[in-house]
Write a structure and sequence with these properties.
Its EC number is 2.3.2.27. Belongs to the NSE1 family. With about 240 residues, the protein is of the alpha+beta class. It has 3 domains: about 80 residues, Aspartate Aminotransferase, domain 1 (Alpha-Beta Complex), CATH 3.90.1150.220; about 80 residues, Winged helix-like DNA-binding domain superfamily/Winged helix DNA-binding domain (Arc Repressor Mutant, subunit A), CATH 1.10.10.10; about 50 residues, Zinc/RING finger domain, C3HC4 (zinc finger) (Herpes Virus-1). Helix content is about 45%, strand content about 15%. Helix 1 runs antiparallel to helix 2. The longest helix is centred in the middle third of the chain and has 16 residues.
Length: about 240
């Protein structure tokens, strides 16, 4: 099999191990790790070959239904890498780490975030859900603690009492979100990955990540939608 032809070295194994223990790794860190693993294992290192290096690992992960995936931070557009288990839905994966009631709170939080206009849910709205859970009611103090754990484990991000999905969560759950929120989940028209925080064209309804909006309209005096060419009425960041 030609795909499997590229040998999995100790450098590849070391890289994979660190990625798995990190949960998610920022692009510049992944590049440093790539160099470090190659130099430690005394194998050929080329600074522009990270994607090839990852492809080799992915070809060996394929039979295990796993994959290293690249995603983009919705906040600043920087690349991130995470190991995704293709055989499990996100909920099965999380079920081993969290209780049923915690998972229910997470799913309800996800509903609020994805169904919101800006991709955020306030802590007040989330905590109001805590005593309406089907599994059993959760005290607000308890719910605050659980939200803190979701932030620490990189499923949620929090800024000034507003919660959104962490980049790790978006990379790992993209398929789940696209199939479970078909009416509202959309991909960014520019980078084609799932967009939770996005601006939407008022005329044709396409969405774009804020970093993609910034890049696409850079230097344009009159921003127009890349799809329908109508005037882009959102304030460009």
């Amino acid at each position: 099999n030609t795909v499997m032809a590229a040998q999995m070295t100790d450098a590849h194994r070391r890289f994979l191990q660190v990625l798995m223990s990190n949960g998610i790794t920022e692009g510049s860190e992944a590049r440093k790790l790539h160099q470090h693993c190659c130099e430690t294992d005394k194998v050929y290192y080329a600074h522009d070959k990270l994607d090839d290096f990852i492809s080799t690992i992915n070809s060996h992960l394929q039979p295990l239904f796993m994959q290293i995936r690249k995603g983009v931070s919705e906040e600043d557009g920087r690349a991130h890498y995470a190991v995704v288990n293709l055989a499990e839905t996100e909920v099965t994966k999380m079920a081993s780490d969290y209780t049923e009631i915690e998972l229910e709170l997470f799913r309800k939080t996800m509903d609020l975030i994805i169904l919101s206009e800006n991709g955020f849910a306030s802590s007040t709205d989330i905590l109001n859900l805590a005593d309406q859970l089907k599994t059993k009611k959760m005290k607000k103090k308890e719910a605050e603690q659980v939200l803190k754990v979701f932030v620490e484990d990189k499923w949620l991000s929090e800024k000034n009492g507003e919660y959104t999905l962490h980049t790790r969560c978006i990379i790992e759950m993209e398929q789940y979100i696209l199939s479970n929120y078909q009416d509202v989940a959309r991909k960014c028209n520019i980078c084609h990955s799932l967009a939770i925080q996005s601006q939407v064209c008022e005329s044709c309804g396409i969405g774009m990540h804020l970093p993609c909006v910034r890049k696409y309209f850079r230097g344009q005096t009159e921003p127009r939608c890349p799809k329908c060419n109508e005037f882009w009425s959102c304030d460009t960041p």
